[in-house]
From TrEMBL:
<dbReference type="InterPro" id="IPR003439">
    <property type="entry name" value="ABC_transporter-like_ATP-bd"/>
</dbReference>
<dbReference type="InterPro" id="IPR003593">
    <property type="entry name" value="AAA+_ATPase"/>
</dbReference>
<dbReference type="InterPro" id="IPR027417">
    <property type="entry name" value="P-loop_NTPase"/>
</dbReference>
<dbReference type="GO" id="GO:0015833">
    <property type="term" value="P:peptide transport"/>
</dbReference>
<keyword id="KW-0813">Transport</keyword>
<feature type="domain" description="ABC transporter">
    <location>
        <begin position="6"/>
        <end position="248"/>
    </location>
</feature>
<dbReference type="InterPro" id="IPR017871">
    <property type="entry name" value="ABC_transporter-like_CS"/>
</dbReference>
<keyword id="KW-0067">ATP-binding</keyword>
<dbReference type="GO" id="GO:0005524">
    <property type="term" value="F:ATP binding"/>
</dbReference>
<dbReference type="GO" id="GO:0016887">
    <property type="term" value="F:ATP hydrolysis activity"/>
</dbReference>
<dbReference type="InterPro" id="IPR013563">
    <property type="entry name" value="Oligopep_ABC_C"/>
</dbReference>
<protein>
    <submittedName>
        <fullName>Oligopeptide transporter subunit</fullName>
    </submittedName>
</protein>
<keyword id="KW-0547">Nucleotide-binding</keyword>
<dbReference type="Pfam" id="PF00005">
    <property type="entry name" value="ABC_tran"/>
</dbReference>
<dbReference type="Pfam" id="PF08352">
    <property type="entry name" value="oligo_HPY"/>
</dbReference>
């Protein structure tokens, strides 16, 4: 059954320099139980995509359709979305959230604050302990202040907070960034366990290697667009877009060839897209790339690249 179906999603921010086209005409399709990975360079719109699903864009407006289990999220009133969806069915682990834990409150007080904000009137302790258990944190941690915890523990607390109301879909924005590699592996294993328990993730990262562990489908973002979308297997084994290929070639490996880097810089999102977003950096660019490529169907998704236009 279709779980998340996004069609033509675009997000525009207003800024002092003019509109920022942060997300442009994105389509995403997930079946029940599938998790999605979004990868791409800094400032390509990854967080904005996640924030638009949980309707927490600040200063931005979203257009298009987001169907979650058949409900059109962008058409719901704010109070309906809050009552039925936000944190309850869809939650988010925000980028850098572990550094935003309040230093003057214990972890338990911070959990209680979240439950109060959601007018929760059931068994507080049971819910908090369930969330702590699901991230393998000891009950003693609840009495501590954030400065008494290691980075890995703080990140687990932040994940537990997102899991508090037992959502089905969790948007995790760079949950392993700024953690050492061993802790990164622990957090990835934790997400894998939660996934086995029936949770779906939208995992946002700039690191394609991290996605291989969790994602069933992958969207490669560049300049506000998903330039390639498909099953993980297809993206890793048979990448099509020159940008996807460049990203995969830039992953450092223990043996074999040295990583390659994509020369140049991403486009400004202040300009609305009128041609291929990757044209300036693409080694395979042709004259046609001066026109905006459509989403061309692939085996498991689509690619926005004229090289795959059928004759
Ligand atoms: N509230 C905002 N107002 C105006 N512009 C914004 C706002 N939030 C993000 N942007 C702009 O939108 C673009 C996309 O930002 P976004 O944070 O979604 O990218 P990202 O891929 O998540 O980046 P990173 O990997 O660095 O977190 C950037 O150009 C950013 O400056």
């Amino acid at each position: 059954m279709v779980f998340l179906d996004i069609n033509g999603l675009s997000v525009k921010y207003s800024s002092s320099s003019g509109p920022v086209y942060a997300v442009d005409d994105v389509d995403i399709h997930l079946e029940d139980g599938e998790s999605l990975g979004i990868a791409g360079e800094s400032a390509c719109g990854k967080s904005t995509l996640g924030l638009s699903i949980i309707r927490m864009l600040s200063g931005g407006s979203a257009q298009g359709k987001i169907l979650f289990e058949g409900d059109s999220l962008l058409d719901l009133s704010e109070s309906d979305f809050n009552t039925k969806y936000r944190w309850k069915k869809i939650s988010m682990i925000f980028q850098g959230a572990m550094n935003a834990l309040d230093p003057v409150f214990t972890i338990k007080e911070q959990f209680l604050e979240i439950l109060n904000q959601h007018d929760f009137d059931g068994n507080f302790n049971r819910l908090i302990l369930d969330a702590m258990n699901s991230v393998s944190l000891d009950e003693n941690v609840l009495k501590k202040y954030p400065h008494e915890l290691s980075g890995g523990m703080k990140q687990r607390v932040v994940i537990a907070m997102a899991l508090l109301l037992k959502p089905k879909f969790v948007i995790a924005d760079e949950p392993t960034t700024a953690l050492d590699v061993l802790i990164q592996a622990q957090i990835i294993n934790l997400l894998k366990t939660l996934k086995k328990g029936g949770m779906s993730f939208l995992l946002i990262t700039h690191d394609l290697a991290v996605l291989s562990e969790i994602a069933d489908k992958i969207g490669i973002m560049y300049g506000g667009q998903i330039v390639e979308f498909g099953s993980s297997e297809e993206i890793y084994k048979n990448p099509k877009h020159p940008y996807t290929k460049g990203l995969l070639e830039s992953i450092p490996r223990l043996h074999g060839t040295n990583p390659k880097y994509i020369k140049g810089t991403p486009p400004s999102l202040l300009d609305a897209p009128t041609q291929c977003r990757f044209i300036e950096r693409c080694p395979l660019a042709i004259e046609k790339c001066k026109e905006l490529p459509p989403k061309l169907k692939t085996k498991t998704g689509y690619v926005r690249c004229w090289l795959y236009e059928e004759e």
